[in-house]
């Protein structure tokens, strides 16, 4: 039932970041933090996990106050995100075989 879901991507903030990155060549740290409405430290933690998985690359330009950090999806990241989305769709579109005992129906 949950085959194909990637636990690294599945965390809501990481999934949202991957969605933004999938629609851009690169995205700045500041834009991601503002768009996702999360703190810089929270974003840093999530992006580090995605980088460690090989799903994003990080580019740092400059030093000090004028420094800019940008993120881009890697080819592996794009494949993993596409597969995760397909797994989510399959999970959501799956019709239960027995609804007689289901709570909330």
Give an overview in words.
The protein has 105 residues and is an alpha+beta fold. It has one domain (7-92): Winged helix-like DNA-binding domain superfamily/Winged helix DNA-binding domain (Arc Repressor Mutant, subunit A, Orthogonal Bundle). It has five helices and three strands. The chain has a three-stranded antiparallel β-sheet with strand order 1-3-2. The mean pLDDT is 89.
Specify the number of helices. Answer: 5
State the secondary-structure class: alpha+beta
DSSP E strands, number: 3
Which whole number gives the mean pLDDT?
A: 89
Radius of gyration, whole Å: 17 Å
Under the CATH scheme, the architecture is Orthogonal Bundle
The CATH topology turns out to be: Arc Repressor Mutant, subunit A
Overall domain count: 1
Distance linking N and C termini? 19 Å
Strand order of the largest sheet: 1-3-2
Strand content: 5-15%
Q: How many strands, which pairing sense, and closed or not: the largest β-sheet?
A: 3 strands, antiparallel
Anisotropy-based shape: elongated
In CATH terms, the superfamily is Winged helix-like DNA-binding domain superfamily/Winged helix DNA-binding domain
InterPro entries: ArsR-like_HTH, HTH_ArsR_DNA-bd_dom, WH-like_DNA-bd_sf, WH_DNA-bd_dom, WH_DNA-bd_sf
Organism: Pseudonocardia nematodicida
Domain HTH arsR-type: 8-94
Protein name: Transcriptional regulator
